[in-house]
Design brief:
This protein has 4 helices and 6 strands. By secondary structure, the chain is α+β, with helices and mostly antiparallel strands. It has one domain (7-155). Strands 1, 2, 3, 4, 5 and 6 form a 6-stranded mixed β-sheet that branches.
């Protein structure tokens, strides 16, 4: 997650003013955690951007989790996937808004699964996570493949 954002960046994120690296985390119905990279253009739950200060603290918490897993590349795309592997080695599923790289008529309106941890982290076992529950969306689905925005919107709780 991006822990080096400033107030100007946050305003741009809230307004989706321009592309900027921005990621948020969500939890599925199995208590698995997913990291979603938006490039500030994809669906982002309002809950995930409801507090700048809490977001920065949560980013620090997530970024400082110990490595508990190896990371498998799920995507068939070619690219530099260091950021997604970083999160998956900490037990998170790594998703990206790949439409940012697709032509307008080829866009799929979804998050593409990029990396998968061999061992996923249980959300409830992350030390200190309780404080950040107000900004972490939960979904009634399981992180296992690409996720259309519509599915996230329909299952968010």
């Amino acid at each position: 997650m991006e822990s080096n954002l400033n107030h100007e960046d946050w305003v741009a994120i809230l307004n989706q003013a321009y592309p900027i690296e921005f990621g948020w985390i969500g939890v599925d119905s199995s208590n698995q955690v997913g990291y979603f990279s938006t490039f500030n253009q994809a669906y982002t739950p309002k809950k995930a951007v409801s507090s700048f200060e809490m977001y920065l603290e949560l980013a620090e918490l997530i970024n400082n989790l110990p490595e508990i897993s190896s990371s498998q590349l799920y995507s068939k795309e070619k690219g530099w996937f260091h950021n997604w592997h970083f999160h998956s080695r900490r037990g998170l599923f790594g998703y990206d808004y790949e439409d940012a790289h697709r032509k307008q008529h080829e866009q799929l309106n979804r998050y593409d699964l990029i990396t998968v941890p061999d061992t996923s982290i249980d959300f409830n076992l992350i030390s200190g996570i309780e404080r950040y529950k107000p900004i972490i969306p939960h979904f009634d689905l399981v992180f296992s493949g690409n996720i259309p925005f519509e599915d996230l919107m329909k299952t968010e709780r």
